[in-house]
């Protein structure tokens, strides 16, 4: 049998990203495999929040909008995200939630395609994407929501009435990476736009929106970007649409001259028009500090470590947990797999509860999917191995089969 422990130790010794681990606050006694839902906190974020509250807010008060750069935070934070998604400075706006940014971009897409009425969305996408699309379709008389079901070819569903296709770049359950360039090309050939949700992609897998000829993208910042619970989301629209694009949440902070207090709305140039109301300064300050780490990260090394970690976990689990009821639910090809691994099991919820009770935190997605997220900046291969061993022991000894683990709790 392979000596997985020794292999893990060897991989950790040669890990070029090992130094980043010390910059994070690591919960005692926990192997954290849920960075795909909420990333860990960096030490510097706490001091940045304290400075923002005690100095900029308490002492600087309203002067901090200019003196501390509060007014520009939606764009300065966006500039830190831009290299991670393959776009330029000044092209990404940070603010509001992923849900609100989906609404903005879908509405903008409908406006850009006035002769078309259909939003074509993945049927198995993360629920908020389809909920927002459904809500928008219910408000706009001419809009209609249709679904692209699993196994259906995009080319068979897209047509002359399709205004925009809504897809996730990395599937939240299966971790499958979609071929962004191919999807964009197919949609453009039919005259439609594509809105990409990058929530499970940014900071986890390579993304190059410009090279893929993308139209629009949104994403959250609290997963692999470690921005904190409820951290503001980001939005991007290709600059080719700026002369005509309109987004419906035309708040004063997206105005060309917000302090001119004009009656009529005039959009700010570029991505600033995607900003809506007053920026959430405390959350933005925490996010801006969390994003600073990416200035030092070798992205090629990060993505390679993510591929190795997910492959290693799959290998160990399938060896140690053979014939124990697990079914792999992600692609085996690392080039098609994001930075999380899912296994299906009929008692998946109870198993994840049992794992959490023993210090391994992952998450569960109904009806039977156990997800394990791998954040290469702070996770070690040794922890990955140890998590697989604890999973094996729980399965072999049926520790999950206890009343305490059957109670459904909130899992985000």
In brief:
By secondary structure, this protein is α/β, with parallel strands linked by helices. Helices cover 35% and strands 13% of the residues. It has two domains: 122 residues, Aspartate Aminotransferase, domain 1; 249 residues, Aspartate Aminotransferase, domain 2 (3-Layer(aba) Sandwich).
Break the fold down into its secondary structure elements and pairings:
Elements: H1 4-13, E1 31-32, H2 43-57, H3 64-67, H4 73-85, E2 92-94, H5 98-112, E3 118-122, H6 127-139, E4 144-148, H7 154-157, E5 162-168, H8 180-189, E6 193-197, E7 216-219, E8 234-237, H9 281-291, H10 299-320, E9 327-328, E10 340-344, H11 348-357, E11 360-361, E12 363-365, E13 369-373, H12 381-396
Helix pairs in contact: 1-12, 2-9, 4-9, 5-6, 10-12
Cofactor: pyridoxal 5'-phosphate
Protein name: Kynureninase
EC number: 3.7.1.3
How would you sum up this structure, described in words?
Catalyzes the cleavage of L-kynurenine (L-Kyn) and L-3-hydroxykynurenine (L-3OHKyn) into anthranilic acid (AA) and 3-hydroxyanthranilic acid (3-OHAA), respectively. One of its GO terms (cellular component) is cytoplasm. Keywords: Hydrolase, Pyridine nucleotide biosynthesis, Pyridoxal phosphate. Its EC number is 3.7.1.3. The structure is a single chain. By secondary structure, this protein is of the alpha/beta class. It has two domains: 4-17 and 298-405, Aspartate Aminotransferase, domain 1 (Alpha-Beta Complex); 47-295, Aspartate Aminotransferase, domain 2, CATH 3.40.640.10. The chain is 35% helix and 13% strand. The chain has helices spanning 4-13, 43-57, 64-67, 73-85, 98-112, 127-139, 154-157, 180-189, 281-291, 299-320, 348-357, 381-396; strands spanning 31-32, 92-94, 118-122, 144-148, 162-168, 193-197, 216-219, 234-237, 327-328, 340-344, 360-361, 363-365, 369-373. The strands form three sheets. It has a seven-stranded mixed sheet with strand order 2-8-7-6-5-3-4, sandwiched between helices. Strands 9-10-13-12 form a four-stranded antiparallel sheet. It has a two-stranded parallel ribbon with strand order 1-11. β3, α6 (127-139) and β4 form a beta-alpha-beta unit. α2 (43-57) runs antiparallel to α9 and α4 (73-85) packs parallel to α9. The longest helix has 22 residues, at 299-320. It is globular, with a radius of gyration of 22 Å. The two termini are 37 Å apart. The mean pLDDT is 95.
């Amino acid at each position: 049998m392979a000596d997985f422990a020794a292999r893990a130790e060897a991989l950790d010794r040669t890990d070029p990203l090992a130094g980043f681990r010390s910059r994070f606050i690591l919960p005692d006694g926990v192997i954290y495999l849920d960075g795909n839902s909420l990333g860990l906190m960096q030490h510097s974020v706490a001091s940045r929040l304290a400075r923002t509250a005690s100095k900029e807010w308490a002492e600087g008060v309203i002067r901090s909008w200019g003196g501390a750069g509060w007014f520009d935070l939606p764009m300065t934070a966006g500039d830190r995200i831009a290299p991670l998604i393959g776009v330029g400075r000044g092209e990404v706006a940070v603010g509001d939630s992923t849900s609100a940014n989906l609404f903005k971009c879908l509405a903008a897409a409908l406006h850009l395609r006035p002769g078309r009425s259909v939003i074509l969305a993945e049927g198995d996408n993360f629920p908020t994407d389809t909920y927002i699309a459904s809500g928008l379709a219910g408000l706009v008389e001419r809009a209609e929501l249709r679904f692209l079901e699993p196994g259906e070819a995009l080319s068979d569903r897209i047509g002359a009435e399709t205004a925009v296709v809504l897809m996730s770049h990395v599937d939240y359950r299966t971790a499958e990476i979609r071929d962004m360039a191919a999807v964009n090309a197919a949609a453009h050939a039919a005259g439609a736009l594509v809105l990409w949700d990058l929530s499970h992609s940014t900071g986890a897998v390579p993304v190059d929106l410009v090279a893929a000829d993308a139209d629009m993208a949104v994403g959250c910042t609290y997963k692999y970007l470690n921005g904190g619970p409820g951290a503001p989301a980001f939005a991007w629209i290709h600059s080719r649409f700026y002369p005509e694009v309109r987004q419906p949440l035309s708040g004063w902070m997206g105005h060309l001259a917000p302090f001119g207090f004009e009656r009529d709305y005039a959009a700010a140039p570029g991505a600033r028009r995607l900003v809506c109301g007053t920026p959430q300064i405390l959350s933005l300050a925490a996010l801006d500090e969390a994003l600073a780490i990416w200035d030092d990260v070798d992205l090629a090394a990060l993505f390679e470590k993510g591929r190795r970690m997910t492959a290693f976990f799959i290998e160990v689990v399938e060896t140690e947990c053979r014939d124990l009821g697990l079914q792999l639910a992600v692609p085996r090809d690392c080039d098609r797999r994001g930075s999380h691994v899912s296994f299906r099991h009929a008692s998946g919820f109870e198993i994840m509860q049992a794992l959490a009770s023993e210090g391994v935190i992952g998450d569960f997605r109904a009806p039977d999917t156990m997800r394990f997220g791998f954040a290469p900046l702070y996770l070690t291969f040794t922890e990955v191995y140890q998590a697989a061993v604890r999973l094996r022991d729980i399965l072999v000894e049926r520790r999950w089969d206890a009343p305490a683990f059957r109670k459904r709790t909130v899992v985000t």
